[in-house]
What we know:
The chain is an alpha/beta fold. Helix content is 28%, strand content 27%.
Amino acid sequence: EKEISSKLPLKDKVCLITAGPTYEPIDPVRFIGNHSSGKMGAAIALELANRGASVKLIMGPSHVKTDHELIDRVDVKSAQQMYDAVHSMVATTDVAIFSAAVADYRPANPVDQKIKKKSNTLTIELVKNPDILASVGAMTQKPFLVGFALETENELEHAFAKAEKKQTDLLVLNSMRDKGAGFGVDTNKIAIIDKNKNVSRFETKPKTEVAKDIVDEIIKKIL
Length: 223
Ligand code: CTP
Ligand code: CA
């Protein structure tokens, strides 16, 4: 019995994870999006399930497969849909991980007919999307919270500020300094920052291995 519980340490836990990009509609055929593949979030969802967790995966547009009997996947498109899905489930969640590359802004007035080509310039007004992670961070009763940060300069300083602002228990910093890290590649280089600003640094490795490091850190903190 002891062996089973050490192999499946998350057996009684519900984990929610956001992943992938979001698509923000401009008109019926166009959107604003980004190059997130959803691979990092999918790898974390599979790793959590392999450790016995019941996983709610809220995925933006992505072709990545995440088949596992313990993964319940909800596909969404926009940041607002992702926000709504998260808040419909967060009250019953033990651990929430926000790996999605959420669009910071969306077109203010998406139109329902295709925009016709006319003048030489076109201006699209954008408005800020809700910050899903910060909205959960601000709750009084909240799950153990894991955020991500992507920085291109003053990495640690910006990451510390983000952790504090969004009230994360752990913040995963994606290092963009490394060419084996980030969007569209199968490897990643991360550092993990806890509430006391302790920093654990990891080597560049496949995203499946990075997912194990992240889940190990979560288990160390919650069990
Ligand atoms: N995030 C979110 N909802 C948003 C924007 C970001 O849940 N509308 C989450 C991301 O999933 C990630 C964390 O917040 O876990 C940090 O995202 P990031 O883009 O690095 O930070 P921002 O606060 O958006 O700041 P900026 O893009 O200006 O660096
Ligand atoms: Ca952002």
